[in-house]
Write a structure and sequence with these properties.
mainly alpha; 6 helices
């Protein structure tokens, strides 16, 4: 098992270009939201299973990381419940955000991290959130 810091360092390797970072800072949260909202729309039970599995994965990096992950899932669900995006709109949002991601990696000149390890699909949202959390005084090791 990798530590939180090891995951952040590994993800950062293919995310050095400032433009790619900017694109990721926009697209990763949108993709995360769209996935949460789509799974919610498809099946409550699937949502519970996938949310629990995701939080469990985050828990391997520490209790605080699991809480952050649960909060990100919860915030995404609240947004979906508040705005009620339809299935088709969520798919469009998802596809457009992924197009942005691939454009960012074209600029970077490196393949997306998830092509070497699918776990990076769950690391990206933490990587985007981490600088904001640090500014708020968050430390995963406290």
């Amino acid at each position: 098992m990798k530590s939180f810091e090891q995951w952040m360092e590994a993800y950062a390797v293919s995310h050095q270009n400032p433009k790619n970072k900017q694109i990721h800072n926009i697209c990763v949260p949108i993709i995360f939201f769209a996935v949460v909202a789509l799974v919610w729309k498809v099946s409550f039970f699937l949502f519970i299973i996938l949310a629990a599995a995701t939080i469990g994965f985050y828990f391997t990096m520490g209790k605080k990381i699991a809480i952050v992950g649960a909060a990100m899932i919860g915030a995404s669900l609240v947004l979906q419940l508040a705005f009620g995006f339809g299935f088709f709109m969520l798919v469009l949002i998802f596809v457009a955000a992924w197009a942005g991601q691939f454009y960012g990696h074209q600029i970077e000149g490196k393949k997306p991290s998830f092509l070497q390890d699918l776990s990076f699909l769950l690391i990206g949202p933490l990587w985007v959130a981490y600088p904001l959390l640090q500014k708020a005084g968050f430390s995963p090791n406290d």
